[in-house]
Design brief:
mainly alpha; three-stranded antiparallel beta sheet
Length: 376
């Protein structure tokens, strides 16, 4: 347990350090140290949230799981109101306060995971039924995903839907009950995709990158050029060329392409391995949790980190269509950084409680049970 938590912290610290260095390198030609300073400020806030979450007994989250989910739904609704939420690039995803931006969907992801973990523990006896295992939790999931989809933020919708289905299965829901709503949701997403010119364009650019390299597929195509030009060891820190206006949003969703160009394939693979190790450590900590809530919570936050990293890496390497999700701990983005570090703190909290010795009361109860059993 101790080794898994130590390795987890080491991976997160390494990714954070690399992210700060590459963020400055990616933006030095145009924005100087602005993004680095902002990320340092958000990183400090995120580390404080991580420490607070690690020190907190995660079981106390059961008391606020409902109010926290309601609060996140209210914020998701408010961000869609014109004049309240900030609309950028055709999407209303942010609140802006004096130059600072907050993305309520990041809070909603964490709130939904906590709520589903609490529900899965409290309703274990109902999870094998359609009503308890699919219909009732489906109301929470549907409300959250619907508001995030409306922003629109399709990448976060797909991510959170996948995590939610995984948690329901682990909580005891029957897969035969889950298949119909999953297929229905997939079909609905496909229909919406077909009638959305921007998204269908991204899919076509994914399937035919050469034909769309000067249009909707420009960003992904330039990212592939950056990765290819880096070779094994890269062009050297700060020597990348694609960040000079060729790769849009190079400091956020596509920062991995700058890592590949300047530090090479070796470092790119090291980043991927770090996320794999992080996920394995998180799942191990979940497996060692003392009760169902801790298990489901740890699995949920681990999947939030791991699947988001998988999608981002897949998009940058053109293995997936463009989704617009940041690379955890590395990409610029305050809300996501704070949320991801809070997830790490919750994993450490689960690890702490699992490694603590049993209380005297629990030991007395166990002794009484043992002594009550007649000898063979």
């Amino acid at each position: 347990m101790k080794y898994a938590a130590t390795i987890l912290v080491g991976c997160v610290g390494s990714l954070l350090a690399l992210g700060m260095v590459m963020l400055y390198s990616a933006s030095m030609g145009k924005d100087g140290a602005h993004y680095l300073l902002m990320q340092l400020a958000w990183g400090g806030l995120g580390l404080a949230a991580c420490v607070a979450a690690a020190a907190l007994d995660y079981r106390h989250l059961k008391k606020i799981s409902g109010p926290l989910l309601v609060l996140s739904l209210v914020l998701l609704g408010l961000v869609l109101v014109p004049g309240v939420g900030t609309r950028t690039h055709g999407a209303s995803r942010w609140f802006r306060f004096h130059g600072l931006q907050f993305q309520p969907s990041e809070l909603a992801k964490l709130a939904l995971v906590i709520a589903l973990a609490h529900y899965g523990e409290r309703r274990q006896w109902q999870m094998r039924t359609f009503l308890g295992g699919v219909a009732l939790p489906g109301l929470m999931i549907g409300a959250t995903l619907g508001l995030i989809f409306e922003e629109p933020d399709w990448g976060s919708t797909i991510l959170l839907a996948t995590v939610s289905v995984a948690l329901l299965l682990l909580a005891g829901a029957r897969w035969t009950f889950l298949v119909p709503p999953v297929l229905l949701g997939t079909a609905g997403l496909g229909i919406c995709l077909w009638h959305n010119p921007t998204r269908i364009g991204r899919v076509m650019a994914f399937l035919h990158p050469e034909q769309y390299k000067d249009g909707v597929g420009y960003q992904a195509y330039q990212a592939m050029i950056a990765l290819g030009s880096g070779g094994w060891t890269g062009l050297g820190l700060g020597n990348g060329r694609q960040k000079l206006g060729f790769v849009p949003e190079q400091h956020t969703d596509f920062i991995l392409s700058i890592i590949g160009e300047e530090l090479g394939l070796v470092t790119t693979l090291a980043v991927a391995v770090a996320f794999v190790v992080l996920v394995l450590c998180g799942l191990y900590l979940a497996w060692r949790a003392r009760e169902p809530f801790g298990f489901l919570l740890a699995v949920g936050v681990t999947l939030l980190i791991g699947l988001q990293a998988l999608i981002n890496i897949g998009v940058v390497t053109s293995a997936l269509p463009n989704k617009g999700l940041p690379l955890p701990f590395i990409s610029y983005g305050g809300s996501n950084l704070v949320a991801m570090l809070t997830c790490v703190g919750l994993l450490l909290s689960v690890a702490r409680r699992a490694s603590e010795p049993e209380t005297a009361e629990a030991a007395d109860v166990e002794d009484n049970v043992v002594t009550a059993v007649p000898a063979a």
